[in-house]
């Protein structure tokens, strides 16, 4: 299971998936960087081999910037951008991109938002014009905003039907408590229903600013010609609002319904679910930690590849699950380690017990040199495959830029992974695995999960319902 970089989230996943033409380049090519007089940064990832281009606008703000008491504003704003802009209706915008055979995307995550188009390089001027209209001149028609609001509310209203989503949501709210990420993209239906069309428009004007954005251009380009068009389409006068301080200190937040709970195991009772979805984890090091690459190797041998410790034991030997994986996720101010799996309600306690035992073994130093080498080979090979698209340079450069990791980050992954030693992995396990304080969430039938968990006395537990997390 590949490690996740949550702050990029869907805002970057859209960009990466839409530019997936194979490339034979072994080294990621750094971008050409320019900056307009208004502060907008342009990153050119030129690749003339294929007649394709992606124009993506990255905004360095997200759900953590939602107004107080109105969580969900960033998500609602992002989903409303294509619903009408510059006097064009939603249908007219759709026809304009479809006529060019182009695809489009808009998304929001905790710390970022992205909007863009992917299409033929020859249509770059038209795609840029559409991007400028949608990103900088959205109309946010009242009826369309209300329709999107109803759609998102309906989606959240059905969250109880999905064990995986429930377990993940409860887990996230416990691990992000007392951090700027404690609200997530959606705190409660009561808060979400307070959001108005004016709130959406004000949020857009505040954060869609040139000094808070990066224009990412990937593919075949006529840079000189396109740069002139960018000056016109994204110059100072094109942007809404006025310059403001977008990088204010974000307050910490804890979900009040969960903050009072001290139990380490939370069971979200859903009696209709035959399978229990389980999350186990704790806070981890930041991506800037000197232990970053040893922890990547540690994670790979624990639960990232098919022959990892967890998969070999829980799936192959004990037959407790079809799927189990571990990952690290990174925000600017928070790192989280998590293990995700599912099993029958009746075997939930056994899966949790065995998983904690594996974590204890690794923490004690029971890691072979062969495991470390296998994990390193897997990481090098999988990175080489994932780097076979032009978007790989965009993804990794943006991650390095956001976290201040320096220009060398773009191409240091393989040599840094190869340089990790057996001793460094053992030390990383000792420092960063914390099974004795792991947060555990399980969504399923509590009447089947709870008895064995209480009998095993793994940790104090509490049964909760949907009202405690939604």
TL;DR of this structure?
The protein is an alpha+beta fold. Helix content is 42%, strand content 18%.
- Mean pLDDT rating: 91
Low-confidence stretches: 1-25
Name of the level-1 CATH class of the largest domain: Alpha Beta
CATH topology of the largest domain: Cytochrome Bc1 Complex, Chain A, domain 1
Strand segment tally: 14
Query: What is the percentage of strand-forming residues?
Result: 15-25%
The count of helical stretches stands at 18
Based on the coordinates given, report the CATH architecture of the largest domain.
2-Layer Sandwich
The value of Rg in angstroms is 23 Å
Secondary structure: elements and pairs:
Elements: H1 9-18, E1 32-35, E2 41-46, E3 52-59, H2 73-80, E4 84-85, E5 88-89, H3 90-99, E6 103-108, E7 113-120, H4 124-136, H5 142-157, H6 163-175, H7 189-193, H8 197-207, E8 213-219, H9 223-233, H10 256-259, E9 265-269, E10 275-284, H11 292-304, H12 309-317, E11 324-330, E12 335-344, H13 348-363, H14 369-386, H15 391-402, H16 413-419, H17 422-432, E13 439-444, H18 446-456, E14 461-464
Parallel strand pairs: 2-8, 9-13, 9-14
Antiparallel strand pairs: 1-2, 3-7, 3-8, 4-5, 6-7, 10-12, 10-13, 11-12
Helix pairs in contact: 1-15, 2-5, 2-8, 4-9, 11-14, 11-17, 12-13, 13-18, 14-16
Question: Could you explain the architecture of this structure?
Answer:
With 470 residues, this protein is α+β, with helices and mostly antiparallel strands. The protein folds into two domains: 31-238, Cytochrome Bc1 Complex, Chain A, domain 1 (2-Layer Sandwich), CATH 3.30.830.10; 261-468, Metalloenzyme, LuxS/M16 peptidase-like (Cytochrome Bc1 Complex, Chain A, domain 1). It is 42% helix and 18% strand. It has 18 helices and 14 strands. Strands 1-2-8-3-7-6 form a six-stranded mixed sheet, sandwiched between helices. The protein has a six-stranded mixed sheet with strand order 11-12-10-13-9-14, with helices on both faces. A hairpin with a 4-residue loop joins strand 6 and strand 7 (113-120). The protein is globular and about 65 Å long.
């Amino acid at each position: 299971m590949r490690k996740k970089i949550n702050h990029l989230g869907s805002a970057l996943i859209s960009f990466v998936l839409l530019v997936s033409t194979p490339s034979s380049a072994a080294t990621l090519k750094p971008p050409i960087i320019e900056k307009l007089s208004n502060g907008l940064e342009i990153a050119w990832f030129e690749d003339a081999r294929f007649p394709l281009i992606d124009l993506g606008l990255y905004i360095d703000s997200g759900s953590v910037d939602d107004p107080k008491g109105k969580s969900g504003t960033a998500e609602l704003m992002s989903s409303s951008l294509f619903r009408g802009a510059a006097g064009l209706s939603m249908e007219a915008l759709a026809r304009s991109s479809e006529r060019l055979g182009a695809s489009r995307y808009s998304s929001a995550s905790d710390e970022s938002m992205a909007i863009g188009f992917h299409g033929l390089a020859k249509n770059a001027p038209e795609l840029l014009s559409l991007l400028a209209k949608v990103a900088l001149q959205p109309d946010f028609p009242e009826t369309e905003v209300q329709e999107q609001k109803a759609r998102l509310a309906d989606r959240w209203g059905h969250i109880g039907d999905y064990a995986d989503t429930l377990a993940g949501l409860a887990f996230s709210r416990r691990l992000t408590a007392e951090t700027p990420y404690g609200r997530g993209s959606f705190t409660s239906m009561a808060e979400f229903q307070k959001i108005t069309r004016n709130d959406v428009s004000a949020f857009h004007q505040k954060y869609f600013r040139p000094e808070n954005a990066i224009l990412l251009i990937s593919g075949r380009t006529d840079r000189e010609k396109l740069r002139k068009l960018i000056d016109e389409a994204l110059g100072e006068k094109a942007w809404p609002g006025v310059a403001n301080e977008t990088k204010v200190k974000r307050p910490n937040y804890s979900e009040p319904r969960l903050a009072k709970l001290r139990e380490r195991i939370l069971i979200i009772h859903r009696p209709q679910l035959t399978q229990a979805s389980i999350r186990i984890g704790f806070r981890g090091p930041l991506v800037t930690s000197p232990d970053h690459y040893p922890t990547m190797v540690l994670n790979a041998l624990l639960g990232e590849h098919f022959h990892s410790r967890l998969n070999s034991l829980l799936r192959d030997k004990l037959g407790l699950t079809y799927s189990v994986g571990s990952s690290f996720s990174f925000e600017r101010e928070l790192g989280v380690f998590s293990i995700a799996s599912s099993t029958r309600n009746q075997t939930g306690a056994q899966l949790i017990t065995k998983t904690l035992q594996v974590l204890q073994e690794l923490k004690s130093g029971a890691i072979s040199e062969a495991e470390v080498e296998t994990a390193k080979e897997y990481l090098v090979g999988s990175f080489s495959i994932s780097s076979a698209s032009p978007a790989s340079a965009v993804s990794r450069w943006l991650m390095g830029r956001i976290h201040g990791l320096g220009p060398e980050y773009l191409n240091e992954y393989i040599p840094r992974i190869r340089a990790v030693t057996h001793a460094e992995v053992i030390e990383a396990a000792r420092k960063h695995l914390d099974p004795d304080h792991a947060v555990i969430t399980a969504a399923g039938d509590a009447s089947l999960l709870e008895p064995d968990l209480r009998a095993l006395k793994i940790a104090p537990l509490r049964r909760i319902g949907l009202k405690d997390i939604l």
